[in-house]
Structure formats: C-alpha cells, structure tokens
C-alpha cells in the first residue's frame, strides 16, 4: 500500500487528531460521519483504527509499519514501546517535533531535498534513525534556513519533549536520549497495534 496523499481532514474525522499529518483542524460541524450509538465496533475494527493512526500520523506505508513491528518484536523490552521509539526517532518525525517543519510530510520534503545535515553530513533519508548526541541543523544555503525559519515563525511554540533540545539562531536540534513513552506526541494504544499484526509477525 502506497503512502497516503488523499484528503487529510477525512482521516482526522475518522481517526481523531493526527498532528503529524496536518496542523489544520476541520471546521466544527463539517460533514462529520457520526457513528450510531447502537452500533458496536468490533475488536478487529478497533485494532485496525489504532494501526491506521500510526500509519497516517507518521506518514509511512503498510509495508514499512509491518517491518517496524517485526524489528520491535525481536528487540528487548515491550514490543509496543519499542515500536513507538522506532517511529519517533525517525529523522522526519524528529524535525517535526523540534518545530523545524510544520508536519511530518513537510519534514520529509526537507530531508528529500537535501536541506538537512546530521552531524555535519547531508542526510536525505527520512527514515534515518536518530541517536543520542546527534546534531541536526539546516544546510548553510539561504533557502534551507528560510524554510525552517518560516516553519518556526508560523507554528505556535510547543513544549519540546525532553529527549530533544532546540538551540536558537542558528537553529540547531540536539537529540539528548531515546524518547520515553510518556513523551510520544500521539494518543495511541500501541498494544492494539501489536495485536493487529500478531499473526503476520509470528514467523
């Protein structure tokens, strides 16, 4: 399944807030599909919707998410928490959490267009896994600096998660440590996602 490029408000109305997908909010009362209070959601549908939240918030494909789940199952610790750490430590998400891009798709575009340096080297892979002590900064080019400055100026300043630090002028991001579960920027039940993929990741 390819990366989603359709209407973003449609996904928000169905799944709830997805801050990584868009920084806009649908108007109150705008063509919202209301579920009948007498219609009970199946357990499968509940798990599916939690999985879809991860996909659309982080902007990854079905194949990528399944690969992350398999990696998380082989790692030490809780599979669900390791999965969230893998997704949160992606470079595109880290740029978004720092405020250097308005959304995760916007951050991915910065990386793909070679505007970002990690530890002094250009990184053009959005899925690059950030590590403690990584230093993230824009290229010295004027266009790169302007894109990041515009994002920081247009978005309301949010409290940074404790695993990140942003140094102003020139804007430079520091990865202090691996993210803790309580700092994840999405309301999600990761255990339901692991359950959804349980049959596909047994082998």
From TrEMBL:
Similarity comment text for this entry: Belongs to the universal ribosomal protein uS4 family.
Gene symbol of the encoding locus: rps4
Chain intervals for the UniProt region annotation (Disordered): 20-40
Major localization class: plastid
Ranges for domain RNA-binding S4: 89-152
PANTHER family associated with the record: 30S 40S RIBOSOMAL PROTEIN (PTHR11831), SMALL RIBOSOMAL SUBUNIT PROTEIN US4M (PTHR11831:SF4)
Domain Small ribosomal subunit protein uS4 N-terminal: 3-88
Pfam families assigned to the protein according to its UniProt record, in alphabetical order: Ribosomal_S4, S4
GO biological process, one term: translation
Keyword Amino-acid biosynthesis in record: no
Record GO terms (molecular function): rRNA binding; structural constituent of ribosome
Matching InterPro entries: Ribosomal_uS4 (IPR022801), Ribosomal_uS4_bac-type (IPR005709), Ribosomal_uS4_CS (IPR018079), Ribosomal_uS4_N (IPR001912), S4_RNA-bd (IPR002942), S4_RNA-bd_sf (IPR036986)
Highest rank taxon of the organism: Eukaryota
The entry's keywords: Chloroplast, Plastid, Ribonucleoprotein, Ribosomal protein, RNA-binding, rRNA-binding
Species: Dionaea muscipula (Venus flytrap)
One annotated Gene Ontology cellular component of this protein: plastid
Entry's localization field: Plastid
Protein name (record): Small ribosomal subunit protein uS4c
